[in-house]
Structures are given as structure tokens and as C-alpha cells.
Specification:
Elements lengths: L1 H32 L12 E4 L2 E6 L5 E6 L7 E7 L7 E2 L7 E5 L5 E7 L6 E8 L6 E6 L6 E7 L6 E7 L6 E9 L2 E11 L4 E5 H4 L5 E10 L3 E7 L6 E4 L6 E9 L5 E8 L5 E9 L3 E3 L5 E4 L3 E6 L1 H4 L4 E18 L7 E5 L8 E8 L3 E9 L4 E9 L8 E5 L3 E5 L6 E9 L7 E8 L6 E6 L6 E4 L12
Antiparallel strand pairs: 1-34, 2-7, 3-6, 3-8, 4-5, 4-7, 8-9, 10-15, 11-14, 11-16, 12-13, 12-15, 16-17, 18-24, 19-23, 19-24, 20-21, 20-22, 20-24, 24-25, 26-31, 27-30, 27-32, 28-29, 28-31, 32-33
Length: 474
Amino acid sequence: MKALIENRFGPIAVVLIALAVLFGLAHLTTHITGPAPQAKAAPPRARVAVQSVTAVCPDPARSTISVLTPAARGTGSVTVAEQGGKGKPSVIDRPGPLWQKEVDRSGPVLVTGAGTPAAGLEAAQTTTVTTGGGRGLSGVRCVEPSSSTWLVGPGPAAAHDVRLHLANADSAVATVELAIYAGEGPVVGDHGLALAPGEHRSVRLADLAPSPLVMAVEVRTRTGRVAVAARADLGDGRGVDWLPAAAPPATKVVVPGLPGGGGRRELYVAAPGETDVVVGVKAVTEDGSYALKGRENVEVPAGSVATLDVSTGIGGQAAALVLTAPVPVVAGVVVTGPGEKPDVAFSAGAPPIDLGSSVADNRSGKGRTTRLILTAPDRAARVRVQVVPSKGTAPAPVDADVPAARTRQVKLPKIEGSYGLVITPLPGSGPVYGGRVLEERTEDGPLLSVQPLALGRAWTLVPPMTDSAATVLP
């Protein structure tokens, strides 16, 4: 019996000893002949063309809706329709040229693209009022439904009316929470409401928080998604415009597209966390990048909003502001034009346009001017700008260089009327930020509106697909 056991397990013991020797030699060899293997870098994400877009124009009463569809070839469709199915939808059956329509209805309008025309689809609503208390040029990029949106601007105590527009374009109920931060700290936290499928709602912020002179608003959803926009009417002819969506809280924030010329520029910074923060402020102008003398920093108490007048620091030049902080912050700028009856416009923290950007509504002629302002805060940038007119042949594209740590106003081709802009960073370009300034001259002074450049909807980045047993194994 003993001999049988020895014969049975003897070969196994030999194999185990041989494996131990081999693994021991491999371990010693690895430590003697070279360093431990480095962790593999994450594979790059793939760039995929967008196939479906829904953008919500929040309230285009007495406005012009502009729709840009750069991807003219292929199959698909683009429709413009009132949310809720009222009225007859407009079908854009000839993608390519800029499409515009005057709209005289309250309530949101949906711009929906499917298939090839969805790639690069942009839409905007623009309103001009030259008389009365609501005098001003107001414009906004029609926004996509999202689970989180930040807005920064004047509070209800500093304006005649600040109104939040919420729209649920999806087929499921959206549960929404609002948080409002002011100079005195948080004034509204987790105010909840629900939006049924297809429902839209206008919320007067003075009913929730009448005291803030300055504010930052966070709109987030627990379930579903909503399209969010806010309109600030300062009253008494002091201007009106829409607040652009601000980049989410980050330790580095770039606020681009600040126009040169007279008037006031005021920075708003919100620290939504639980830590007081000192935020460094730099201006990037046509002359260079520098800290603002006497305004190098702004102190922001936890959960509050602080302001800083940067008018003299910029010196009337086209500019961007770069903010750095040890904890995430949100920022925006209020631009007040010159004259006895100045108009107001708003910019906000924006992302770099690595995958390109488009602006649907641009105008020239008859007292109207469009300015494209680009900033390269780090390395030099190089972009290609294509004008897409509403009529006629498009001019040749323009390549523009932006030196490192500089802001540049791009000279656009001469064209009469309305047109779209497509901005594409070229290979080797550093990060570039930008804004479009729309200006209209009147007898009482210029009207203006600023739209920070947002990431275009032409491409999306998706993680690479790899074979894995994880999908079938417990």
C-alpha cells in the first residue's frame, strides 16, 4: 500500500518541485535584469459621429430661430417643432445652408436631428428689443437635456426679473432639484419639483430667493434629464440677455469671449463646496497673459458667490479670464456696454473646443457686427473657420493662428446677412477657448450678446471595445 501511494504521488511532487524552481528563477531574473513592467496606459477613446441630437430653444417668442446643419450629405432629417406637438413642425429638407425662421410663440421649441444631418447640428434663438424696459439684444444656444446645469449671473435683487426655464423633452418623468448660492451663502438648497414627460415650466427665482444680488444656480436631476436656461432682465432699460450654461465646478476655469471696448466687466465666482477658497485670476488679452494688478486673487467663502471688477485690468481689450483654485469653483462674467443706455451680456466658464465648435446665429451689415474671439491660454493654437451663409456660395475657409498666452479677434470673411460659423482646431493645436460677440448699433447705443463657444455636436468620444469574459461570468 505504501509503495502504491508513493508511486501515485511521486510524479506530482516532481512536477511541483520543477514549477517552483522555474518560478523562482523567473522571479530572480526579473529583479536582476530589469525593472518591473509598467502599467499599460489606457487605450485612447474612439471618435464617433453623432447620429441624434435634441436641442431646446427655451422661449423664442418674437425671436429668430437659427439652425445650422454642416453635414449636408447622407440620410436623415431635421425638424423644428413646438414642444407638446402643437402647431405644424418645420422640416429642414435641404441641410447645409443656414436655416432661419421668425417665431412668435411662447414656450420651448425642439430642434431634432437624426442620421447624418445630426452631426454638427447647432441651433440658437435671438431676440432684439430696441424700446421699452426690456431693451436689449438677447441670444442663447439652444440647449440639450442634461442631468446637471450651472448658471452664474445677477440675482433677483439686482434685476427686474430673473427667470429659470425648464423643459423635459424626454418620455419619462424628470425629478429636479435646485440649489441657489448668493453672496451671503446658500439661500436655497435642494428645492425639488417634478416635470412630466413633455412638460415645461418657468420659475421666477425671486419667488424662491428674493434677496441675492449675485447668484449661482445648480439644476440637477435625480431621475431623467431637463433642458435648462435662464433669462435676466435688469429692468429700466439696463439690458436683458440669457445666461449661458457654465462649465461645472473645476480647479481651473476659463471664461472666454470678453469683448473689447468701453463699459464694465465684472467677474462672479462661486465656491459651492464646504471650504473657503482664494482664487487666482489672470487676464489673457491681445497683449499677453498677466495677473491683474491689485486684483490677483478673489476670496470666496464656502457656499457663496464673490465679485471682482476687472474692467481696468483688461484695459478695453478682447480677453479671457483664467481662474485657478485649490477646490472646484464656477465662474461667469457680466459685460455691460458703453453709453447712457447700456446693454448687458453674459459669459461663463467654458470647455476647450478640442472637437470643434459651431455658432448658428451670426450677422453682418445694417449696423450689425459679429466678432469671433479666441484664446490660447497655454500653447499656441491654430484653427480653421468656415462661414456657412443662409444664401449663396460659402467663402473659402480662414485659418487663424492664436499665439500662446494670447487672445485674438479673428478677421472673418466679408458677407452680408446671417451666417453660421464652424470652428475646427487643426492638428498640433494647443487648447483653444472662444466666444462669439454679436453687436447691433442703435441710436441709443449698441446692443450686444455674448455666446461662449461650446463643444460641437459633430463628434463624441467613446471608450474602445475589447473582448472580455466579464459580460458572461458572474
